[in-house]
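Q: You know discrete backbone vocabularies at least as well as I do. I have my own habits and do not want them to colour yours. No explanation is needed for now; the record alone will do.
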Amino acid sequence: MTPAVREAWARGRALLDDLRPTGDLVAGLAERLADTEGLPGPEDAFAWLSCVLGLVSANEGNYGVGAVVLRDGEIVAEGRNRLLQPRRDTSAHAESDALDTFEARFPDSDPGSGSGVGVGVGTTLYTSLECCPMCTVRLLNSGIRAVRYLAPDEDGGMLSRMAGLPPYWRRLAAGRTPRQTFEPAACHPVLGEIAADVFATTEAWLNERLVRS
């Protein structure tokens, strides 16, 4: 087990231990996450941590999405959705929250450095939910070469609709070396199911709240 994997499990466990569920759905999801700690796949720990961060967001009254950035085998940033709590911030999606930390920590670095992309090489962002158009464009601008998502978002996700981006953005992703990739995470299927359920705990009522605002 690598140091980053150990750190991911430990960080997620600490977040779950500190969680005070605001309802039965959150409590049930926390139990499911506790039961899946320690899955052996190479991306499972980082995918799992993104789910835990998403559950923290849902418990706070935000959309249930979390994100983790791994750079050259080290966890260097994490983020979670903070759209409505503690104050309204329309830029505070999980991926953007993680990118804010990453870019502050490495302001002049090349996020595509390394011999390739994937676990332990270069920079990879894991997100519990397929990225929306806003976060997709920011990730394209960031230069991070690998983005891995757990749960698809049929209503709001952009990564499965990359052909619908304006030509400039498609050329930007394709023109980098190594090329930017946006793909489902190679994690245990149960983590994708949990990620979808975490998002679903808040999606309907928050969507309605935003429509009314």
Observations:
- Confidence is low (pLDDT under 50) at residues 114-120.
- The longest helix spans residues 189-212.
- The chain has one domain: 3-109+119-212.
